[in-house]
Amino acid sequence: MTELGSAGRFLVEYTADLGSRLGHRPLAYVHSYGCQQNVSDGERIMGQLAAVGYGFTKEPSEASLILLNTCAVRENAEDRVFGNLGGFKKLKEKDPGLLIGICGCMAQQEHIAEKIKESYRYVDLVFGTFAGGDLYSMLRKVIEDKERVFNLSEKPSDIDGDFVQLRESSFRAYVPIMYGCNNFCTYCIVPYVRGRERSRSPESVISEVRKLVADGYKEITLLGQNVNSYSYGFPALLRSVNEIEGDFRIRFMSSHPKDASDELIDAILGCEKVCKQLHLPLQAGSDRILKAMNRSYTVERYLGIVDKIRSRAPEFSLTTDIIVGFPGETYEEFCMTKDIIRRVKYDNIYSFVYSRRTGTPAAKLEDKISDKQKGLWLRELLLEQRETSSEWLARFVGRTARVLVEGEGRTSPEHLTGKNDEGIIVEFVGGRELIGQFVDVKITKAMNWALSGELII
Ligand code: 5AD
Ligand code: SF4
């Protein structure tokens, strides 16, 4: 239970009063950008807001409170936030009582907070990734004292509490098992904005999963920047979560190749609820660039892990992250990344053009290749992946897949979309009442990004 405290009780009165003036519950627009961890933080913030009387809207113009939960991992994510913020100025002019806040990874950076302080004066509240637990007192300060609040605290907050969360889905849930990152890859802002690693206790993770399963959740994704450094042992946690009774499946991400152990592989292959899938970020395919990135593994070590898994499960599903155009990367080195894509055969890759992040070591490196050129390399990489994956996905054709139905499909209004155990998108014709259920689908066709098939009734 979240204790409301005096600030929470103040907000309950505030929303009741505002609601009677509006004629309906005041609405909050909360938008989370970026990774699943951030979505999960946003769900906790929404839980706190719901507990003091806010409803929610997807339309900023209907909102009495706008909160953007931001991502800092690449520059275009930050540009989008500033773009959206510009649009909110008019809303504030129309309704001076509108509260506008920015939180999350981007807000944790001092130069961003400064920019908002100076150039976006209609923003009332800025807080980073540590201060979410103080949401009530920050809002009270804004409302009661009519002060702008900037909270860039780096004090680790309680992570083992039983938090109220308002989850986006009623059948798929994210469960953070750890926060922060100690790896300091030279391109990455995450360790600076999310701080050092902190692991939740296994008891608190297991109790959360138990409740979710009892509430009918069918897919649990355990989250951490690097689950392999979970302090209480990740393979053991996987086994404990696997023992929870119920009809659900377990995913997790991400797993750093530097410490993906045999015990991890044993646990994945030995636990029936754990999906036979691993997200193993490669980032680059040459030892020189991996070293410059401070990734702490070589291409040989990475491929060793892949071979170990595939020798035991030849069709095991792998996905990865790739950065194209790290400072100093040559075309020849980039081609080595393409070679690995062909060699490993991924079901999906998440690839990005390198983005310079202020405050990271790589930001100081000389970078001679233009973004335009890097964009061309990225296209080349995606073509390579498309070719490889359309062949590789064909292994599923003719087989039956267990699919968790997620929603309406893209192919036609009659189609549904879901994911198989390997995390690959499957489209098929079926009724909307199946959303949130496991169904069996006979796979009839592989495309380069997804599968399609027929529902088995
Ligand atoms: N530029 C481009 N991509 C990045 N990532 C992290 N930092 C950067 C950056 N500065 C990518 C990595 C990581 C994923 C979550 O985002 O591939 O695995
Ligand atoms: Fe960033 Fe590397 Fe940590 Fe991932 S492991 S969050 S890429 S520093």
What does this protein structure show overall?
- The structure is a single chain.
- This protein is α/β, with parallel strands linked by helices and 457 residues long.
- It has four domains: 2-151, 3-Layer(aba) Sandwich (Rossmann fold), CATH 3.40.50; 167-275, Transcription Regulator spoIIAA; 277-395, 2-Layer Sandwich (Transcription Regulator spoIIAA); 397-456, OB fold (Dihydrolipoamide Acetyltransferase, E2P).
- 37% of the residues lie in helices and 21% in strands.
- It is built from 13 helices and 19 strands.
- The strands form five sheets. Strands 2-1-3-4-5-6 form a six-stranded parallel β-sheet, sandwiched between helices. The protein has a five-stranded mixed beta barrel with strand order 15-16-17-19-18. It has a three-stranded parallel β-sheet with strand order 7-10-11, with helices on both faces.
- Strand 3 (65-70), helix 3 and strand 4 form a beta-alpha-beta unit.
- The protein is globular and about 65 Å long.
- Residues 181, 183-185, 188, 190-191, 225-226, 256 line the site of iron/sulfur cluster.
Q: Briefly, what is this?
A:
The chain is α/β, with parallel strands linked by helices. Helix content is 37%, strand content 21%. The relative contact order is 0.08.
